[in-house]
Every structure is written in structure tokens, then in C-alpha cells.
């Protein structure tokens, strides 16, 4: 007959009762059903904890941090679950880097050296490389150059291949690239290989560093001179004419004190500036992460500032660079 909707046959009551009382029913999938739940009006917003206006402190977990993995997720209640600061893992984000404000181009100043015209003191901070301690392989050195306000001025990165770096160690020839906040290479420092098997007073064994600014244009040279008692260097212009001298301490391996390299005039009377290797306790004794403090007059020629800056790296490689210990072959 039309208009009659067929219905499923009714099951006996005893069969339905057996289905209800069957122990541990485990269906393959949950049954479909229509919820009769009617949502009520929204409740009042939960205020943040007392003493932390505007939200939770940095080391507290919250639902707005999807990258964190706390040991126990909030399951309900009036307040979210909080953890003791510093006890559980949190997501670490690199601290923002503050760069020194730029300067307009200056006549007769190589591009990129405008920063040095505003400074009379810079800090050279070498990165600590834990991989060197674990693998005993030499890695490329990296340095941060900062001013007294802890603002980044330059970044210096070594560019040497793996074989040269690990075969020649501290005597290796290298290329250092100095870059500003835009990633532009504004200066290049090159150290050629010098054989040290000859007599120390032989000119062919003298260590030398060429400074180019901009890259490809020679700004000057830093040349090592043999001396029986102390480290002696000469700072030369692009024509290899000596313009400044650098005299180091009698012992550069002093424990517990700074090592001062004085920058003087040609006659040695006037003190122009200094390159100070700071003593940092166990980090200086065990790790390869040096800290240099470079000082020069504010009105010094910016090219001479760049040459003193370059001399710092030759001094670091000759006296303070430590190679990872080698495994003894048996």
C-alpha cells in the first residue's frame, strides 16, 4: 500500500536483554548517536594568576605554546595546570640580536668601515665550539664583534676547507670574512701558509696577514717579526711601509691574568692603543673561546683601526688558538 513506511522487524525482549547484559562489549566502532546536549551561556573569563598581569610568566606552560611538550596536559578545572619554573623543559628561542645603528657614507672611508669611525673600543668574542671537544676535529672559527653597549658591529667567519684545517691546525692558512648586519662582506683577511721548519729568524717563516677592504682591494699587512723575548709585529700599509708597531708581553701563556699587546708609533714612544686578550677563568684555560678587547683613539684613521682589528686575529691564531687533543695511536 502506498504511504506505508516499512519498519525493521522487532526483536524479542529476551534477545535485547541478553545484548544489554553481555559482559565487556567491545564494538569495532562507537555507535552513532544524536547528542541531546544543549550548550548554555558562556561563563566568565578566567583571570590570570595573581602577580602575573596579562598572562603567564615566560617559564609557565600554556595552551598558547604549541611547541612545548609538558609532562601532563591540562584536563579541566578552574585554573590551568602550572609547573615550577626551571624544572620542566620549555621551548628555547634565540635571543634577538641588537645591531649597532648604521652610518651614512663617509668620504675617503672604505664602505662598511663607517662603524669604526664612531668607536674607540670593540670586543672580539670567539664562539665556543663543543663539537671540537667531542669529535676532536677542528672547525671553522666564528667571532662576534660588539661595542661597549653590547651591540653587534660585525660577524667574522673563517672560510677554510676541512683538510687544510685539520692537517695544519694552528699553522693553517685561512680566510676570514667580515660581514655587517646585511650579510654583506665588507672586509677579507687572508693568511698564507708559512713553513716553520727553518730557522726562526728566516724571513720565509714570518707569519703574515693581508687585510682587504673592500674585498679584493689591499688595505695593508700585519707582519710577525722574530724576537727572543716577546711577540713583535709591524703594521704596514698597502705599499708595505711600516706605520705602526705592536709589542706583546714576555709570556703570552700567563695563567690568571690578561695578555696585553701594545700598539705604538714607529719610534715606540707614543702609545696608540692596545689589543688585550681577556682572562676568562676556566673558559680561557680549557676552551677555545677567546675574548679580545681592542682599544684605539676615536680620531685615529679608520684604515689604521681596521689594521689593528686585523692584527687581533693573527695574534689569536699564533698564541691562543688551541687545537682539539688528538687520539693516541697504538
Automatic annotation (TrEMBL):
The keyword Lipoprotein applies. Its cofactor is Ca(2+). InterPro entries: Scramblase. One of its GO terms (molecular function) is phospholipid scramblase activity. It comes from the Eukaryota. Signal peptide: none annotated. GO terms for cellular component: plasma membrane. Keywords: Calcium, Lipoprotein, Palmitate. Residues 1-45 are annotated as: Disordered. May mediate accelerated ATP-independent bidirectional transbilayer migration of phospholipids upon binding calcium ions that results in a loss of phospholipid asymmetry in the plasma membrane. Belongs to the phospholipid scramblase family. This is Phospholipid scramblase. It comes from Phyllostomus discolor (pale spear-nosed bat).
Amino acid at each position: 500500500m502506498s504511504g506505508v513506511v516499512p519498519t525493521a522487524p522487532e526483536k524479542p525482549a529476551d534477545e535485547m536483554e541478553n545484548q544489554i547484559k553481555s559482559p565487556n562489549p567491545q564494538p569495532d566502532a562507537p555507535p552513532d548517536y544524536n547528542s541531546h546536549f544543549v550548550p548554555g551561556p558562556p561563563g566568565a573569563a578566567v583571570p590570570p594568576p595573581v602577580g602575573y598581569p596579562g598572562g603567564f610568566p615566560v617559564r609557565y606552560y600554556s595552551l598558547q605554546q604549541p611547541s612545548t611538550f609538558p609532562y601532563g596536559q591540562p584536563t579541566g578545572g578552574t585554573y590551568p595546570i602550572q609547573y615550577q619554573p626551571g624544572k620542566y623543559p620549555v621551548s628555547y628561542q634565540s635571543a634577538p640580536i641588537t645591531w649597532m645603528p648604521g652610518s651614512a657614507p663617509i668620504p675617503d672611508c672604505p664602505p662598511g668601515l663607517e662603524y669604526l669611525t664612531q668607536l674607540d673600543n670593540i670586543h672580539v668574542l670567539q664562539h665556543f665550539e663543543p663539537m671540537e671537544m667531542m669529535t676532536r676535529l677542528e672547525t671553522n672559527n666564528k667571532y662576534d664583534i660588539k661595542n661597549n653597549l653590547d651591540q653587534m658591529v660585525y660577524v667574522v667567519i673563517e672560510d677554510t676547507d676541512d683538510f687544510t684545517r685539520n692537517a695544519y691546525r694552528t699553522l693553517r692558512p685561512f680566510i676570514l670574512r667580515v660581514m655587517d648586519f646585511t650579510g654583506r662582506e665588507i672586509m677579507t683577511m687572508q693568511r698564507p701558509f708559512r713553513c716553520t721548519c727553518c730557522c726562526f729568524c728566516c724571513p720565509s717563516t714570518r707569519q703574515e696577514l693581508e687585510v682587504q677592504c673592500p674585498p679584493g682591494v689591499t688595505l695593508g699587512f700585519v707582519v710577525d717579526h722574530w724576537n727572543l723575548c716577546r711577540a713583535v709585529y709591524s703594521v704596514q700599509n698597502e705599499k708595505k711601509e711600516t706605520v705602526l708597531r705592536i709589542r706583546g708581553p714576555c709570556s703570552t701563556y700567563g695563567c690568571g691574568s690578561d695578555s696585553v699587546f701594545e700598539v705604538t708609533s714607529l719610534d715606540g714612544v707614543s702609545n696608540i692603543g692596545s689589543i688585550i686578550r681577556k682572562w676568562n677563568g676556566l673558559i680561557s684555560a680549557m676552551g677555545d673561546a677567546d675574548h679580545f678587547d681592542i682599544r684605539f683613539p676615536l680620531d685615529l684613521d679608520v684604515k689604521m683601526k681596521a689594521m689593528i682589528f686585523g692584527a687581533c686575529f693573527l695574534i689569536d691564531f699564533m698564541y691562543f688558538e688551541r687545537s682539539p687533543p688528538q687520539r693516541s695511536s697504538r
